[in-house]
Amino acid sequence: MIKVGIVGGTGYTGVELLRILAVHPEVTVSCITSRSEAGMPVADMYPNLRGHFDLEFSEPDASVLKACDLVFFATPHGVAMRMVPELMDAGVRVVDLSADFRLKDLDVWAQWYGMPHETPEWAEKAVYGLPEVVRDEIRSAQLVANPGCYPTAVQLGFLPLLEQGLVDPSRLIADAKSGASGAGRQGKIGMLHGEIGESFKAYGASGHRHLPEIRQGLTGAAGSQVGVTFVPHLIPMIRGIEATLYAELKDPSGFDRLQALYEERFRNEPFVDVMPFGSHPETRSVRGANQCRMALHRQEDSNIVIVSSVIDNLVKGAAGQAVQNMNIMFGFRETMGLEAPALLP
Ligand SMILES: NC(=O)C1=CN([C@@H]2O[C@H](COP(=O)(O)OP(=O)(O)OC[C@H]3O[C@@H](n4cnc5c(N)ncnc54)[C@H](OP(=O)(O)O)[C@@H]3O)[C@@H](O)[C@H]2O)C=CC1
Ligand SMILES: CC(=O)N[C@@H](CCC(=O)OP(=O)(O)O)C(=O)O
């Protein structure tokens, strides 16, 4: 049994962590922070957790967090980077759901996140926790940077093509759509039902902060600099991301082997499902599940590979992947607490 703390327990990813950890047999949650709701019983704010947690939200307090074996940060960017050094010195392990430790180039980080990075030494040591790529490094990591939601869906979908050098790496396209929970729980007019319902729009087309993260991951997979166009869209649903990915095959005669390549690449991955060629994975098939489902397509006489990749942004795109990382770090079965299939309808 390990003792776990959550900093930022009132946000969407924080409560998703609680939902998953409520039934995790190896975890006791000993501390859940919120500055605005300190003193409120967790189950009063989230009745779905009644009977599971007899805890109140508390102010973030390093002396309490230092008594944990692992702390999850489910906070806005810029918070974890300031609190992590003290926890690292105390030997606590951390999974950070924010972007503070995801990018290795800290000039790029500062450019996208609008502040200088304050703990470059930990940014360098952090492991970018996409288990399907760096499982062995995660096992021994003290600090894991949990990947972003869009970057998870996009990287998993492109990985086999880039690792095998089958496509032109300079002309990748990721056309991604997300539900509104991706923007978090803090009130914003643009996220009101009346604003996003019955509507659908692209945003960040000239550049989104996930672009450098996607570029970093895909460059690692390809072994050389990639060129990627990434455009996110906001769709009127709550959970889910669908990323439609496009890449140009260098040798179109290789098309027939791609399905087998994808199936083989993810054969031993418990949380990646390669569907039959030509399928259309739906976000509802992963809603609430720590799962990425994907399928390959080809249009007639085209040498463009199309991959459709879906995840739940709050689960494989955030809290579920964070628990998957925790399981790997502590030597628990990787699927522990994460076995539940998606909610339908
Ligand atoms: N939503 C999503 O789909 C995904 C989110 N993420 C990332 O995960 C992180 C959390 O996201 P999400 O749950 O959506 O965010 P929310 O805005 O819903 O919640 C943020 C939480 O952090 C706490 N918090 C805010 N400021 C501070 C601070 N200075 N110190 C300590 N606690 C603070 C808030 O509580 P209080 O203010 O009361 O302390 C709240 O509990 C973000 O970095 C986000 O980018 C990553 C992948 C997907
Ligand atoms: C729909 C929506 O607004 N999505 C968020 C991205 C999700 C997120 O939380 O970003 P991180 O993974 O970097 O933490 C956005 O575009 O800013």
What are the main properties of this structure?
single chain, binds NADPH dihydro-nicotinamide-adenine-dinucleotide phosphate, 345 residues, 7-stranded parallel sheet, binds N-acetyl-L-glutamyl 5-phosphate, amino-acid biosynthesis, Dihydrodipicolinate Reductase, domain 2, 2 domains, 7-stranded mixed sheet, Rossmann fold
CATH architecture of the largest domain: 2-Layer Sandwich
**In percent, how helical is the residue content?**
25-40%
State the shape. Answer: globular
The CATH topology of the largest domain, please? Dihydrodipicolinate Reductase, domain 2
Rg computed from alpha carbons, rounded to a whole number of angstroms: 20 Å
Spatial sequence of strands, sheet with the most strands = 3-2-1-4-5-7-6
**Structural class per helix/strand content?**
alpha/beta
Q: CATH superfamily of the largest domain, please?
A: Dihydrodipicolinate Reductase, domain 2
Number of helices: 12
* Small-molecule binders: NADPH dihydro-nicotinamide-adenine-dinucleotide phosphate, N-acetyl-L-glutamyl 5-phosphate
Strand tally is 14
CATH top level class name of the largest domain: Alpha Beta
Average pLDDT over all residues: 97
Q: Give the biggest sheet.
A: 7 strands, parallel
The H-and-E topology, N to C, reads as EHEHEHEHEHHEHEHEHEHEEHEEEH
Strand content: 15-25%
Integer count of domains: 2
Given as residue ranges, the uncertain stretches (5+ residues, pLDDT < 50) are none
Distance between the terminal alpha carbons, to the nearest Å? 35 Å
